[in-house]
Amino acid sequence: MTKMLLWPTKPSVWVSLLFLSTGLLPAARAWSDTPVWDSPVDMNQRAEWGVIAPEDLRWTEFPPDSNANAVILSDYGEVTFEGDFNIRKTRHTRIKILNEAGYSRGDIAFSYQSADNIQRLRRVEAVTYTLDESGEVQRHPLPQSAITEDDVTSRYTLVRFSMPALEPGAIIEYRYEVTSRHPHYLSDWTFQSSEPTLWSEFQAQIPAVLGYAQVSQIFQHFEVRETERIQHMLQLHGPNTTGNSHRWAMKNIPALRDEPHMTSRSDYLNRIRFQLSEYLLPGIGRRQVLHDWDTVADELRRHTDFGRQIGTNRAMRRQVSELTSGLDDPEKIIQAVHNYVRDHIQWNGEYGITARNGVRSTFRDQSGNGSDINLLLISLLREAGIDADPVIIRLRSSGRIIDIYPMIGQFNHTLALVTAGDLMHILDATRENLEWNLLPFDALAERGLVIRREPEWISFGAFSPNRRRSYAQVRVCGETGTLSGTVQSRHIGYAGYYSRRSVSRSSEEEFLRTVYLEHLDDPEISNQEFTDLHNPDAPLLFQFDFDNAKSGYEVDGRIYISPHILYRLNDNPFTLEDRHFPVDFGIPRIWNYTMHLQIPENYEVVEAPENLTVTFAHHGHYRHLTGMTGNVFQITSEFSFPSTRVEPEDYKKLQEFYDVIADAHSEMIVLQRIDSPEEFPAQLEEGPVQLEATPIQQDGR
Asked: I need a labelling partner for 248 at 20 to 30 A (CA). Which of 5, 337, 389, 624 fits?
């Protein structure tokens, strides 16, 4: 198992107002002692540009973290103010490459908000350092022509470049400068990375006339945390204004790598964030920028690109009339309107809580971003007499919302809350293959803010499981041990969505061969038949035949076959020794699988998996039952995990639960040739076995 270095139970998160005539911020709450590393390099301050010693290039191992492919030696950021509150941000990063897998650290990318020239890239420099055969340091500067800028959205530009002359032991460093012409854009800072970091530092020189709310998410001690008063910082059409210079630094920060079923790494990284809260104008006084959630909701309701977008024109009203003609049931009306938007309006792949094209243009052009589409959905539902309101969320992949931080910028998607009598649905019409009352996985946020006259927070999640039920009738083909057979399957809810999406991205046969039968080698697919493939609101049914598929091997005249040709767990996905953040599956899962395996008449079953039931407290269970009738071996299994979240204190039990399943799925049916078919062995167990008739043992595991 991979051991993770020194992680706490939960972060310390707090908000401080940096109206910077005040002194030091409150002391950080530390959740772990600073790690003690036997490091090849002892970093006690940020690196100086271009200062590289030969010994820095010789080492290629990092004993504190054997999984490291690179080490962040130094990461330094600085923010200063100029002129009329223009912000200048500089960043200087130095990285040690340990092996070839670490070369990906040489692919650098960062973005800035280029729309309306709000931010500008001023300069980029980058150099790779290596040793030549004589032990001298060699510089390999990055040509300016190797730097590209691409508009990835209508608002943001992505800067990319790849460092030259990479090799194990090399050091790369780069620095750049971005200016912002609005004080809102004070840079956030993340001290941590997916590789270990020896030194990370952020400095901010902020005029006293600006007040910022700081949200700190801290898991270990700051090495440096200090504030210095500056008497002459910024001249604003008159006398110089005072301010404070803040400095935060951390040392020896463990890597935080992506783990299975992690909502967002940003929720668990050491980081600080800032939002302009208030400012002082000479002769006018203090003005609030950061208010409360009621004010945020009211501003959005009145916003030209949000609340004022909700409404219809003549063409939209005519469409609603056609869709709802003859319908009296509110749920059928909701479904009809939703499905029209889902099936006719193309999502352009962009998120954002405000409309980009506008509702009416989106209806006319049949394309828009996420908020364009869902604000259109709300508009049409209201026209149909359904109570509908926008709900703003932060996508799962972006991290959680901090509710003590009333800032619109935390949100990046809009959903529709629909109520009709006792009915309540949260809808998203951006995915063409998704059932009308399900949300895309990334939209399954913990909660969202309903934008109306009396705003409120609501919690929601996946109410429909990923449900799969499959039946396989399989034959073992003689001495080769290959398998042929027929499979029938029924996918409901999210299972239907993911399967339809896979088919749409390739083909029916490719889906069956590479996704559904991923545990069989080289199956030949034929006679495939899909029912309701293009109807997301119905269960997806499909059946097919396969031939010459390999699911085992032959040793000394015995044939070894895995009975789990579907839904097999080869390895436990949870490998950390300790995990100090939740396992978040997002969606309940219920998978049923039955296989009847016909054994050749001149073979007998000499070994087979035994019956198994394992439960994991209130979270879920797995079981499989086996039996033998004549020359047919049967295995019936059920994996049921209605829980969507496992807390860190139950992580060890979750590991044990998956260990048992992985071990069970590694068991084989062993066939041995017999001299005469009349010597067919006695039945292992009377069957067929009915899975539903067997109670689950609540053994608390």
From this structure: 5
Which residues on adjacent β-strands are paired with residue 177?
90, 123
Tens-place pLDDT, residues 238-273: 556 788 999 999 999 999 998 999 988 888 899 998
| 300 phi and psi angles, rounded to 5 deg | -70, -40
Q: Which three-class secondary structure state does DSSP give residue 506?
A: coil
Q: In this structure, are residues 456 and 450 in contact, taking their beta carbons and an 8 Å threshold?
A: yes
Amino acid type, 247: R
* Residue where the block lists tokens 């950021």: 77
Q: How many Cβ atoms from other residues are within 10 Å of residue 366's Cβ?
A: 11
**Domains of the chain: residue spans and CATH:** 12-288 (2.60.40.3140), 294-459 (3.10.620.30), 466-693 (2.60.120.1130)
Cβ-contact 431, 413 below 8 angstroms: no
State pTM to two decimals.
Answer: 0.82
Tokens in use for 478?
Answer: 């003689």
Stated as kind and residue range, the H or E segment containing 100 is none
The token pair at 395 is: 């996508």
Which 8-state DSSP code applies to residue 650? G
Which string of DSSP letters, residue by residue, matches 246-295?
EEEEEEEEPP----TT-S-GGGGS-EEEEEEEEEEETTTEEEE----HHH
Residue type, 590: I
Q: Is 285 left (phi over 0), alpha (psi -120 to 50) or beta?
A: left
DSSP string, 17-75: EEETTS-PPPPPPPSSPPP----SS---SPPPTT---GGGGT----TT-TT-SEEEEEE
What residues contact residue 408 under an 8 Å CB cut-off, 6+ apart? 296, 299, 300, 353, 392
Cβ contacts of 522 within 8 Å, gap of 6 or more = 548, 549, 550
DSSP for 614-674, written as a single string: EEETTTEEEEEEEEEETTEEEEEEEEEE---EE-GGGHHHHHHHHHHHHHHHT--EEEEE-
**Residue with tokens 């309540």, as numbered in its chain:** 424
pLDDT digits (tens, 9 = 90+) for 188-213: 999 999 999 999 999 999 988 888 88
List the structure tokens of 505: 């991205």
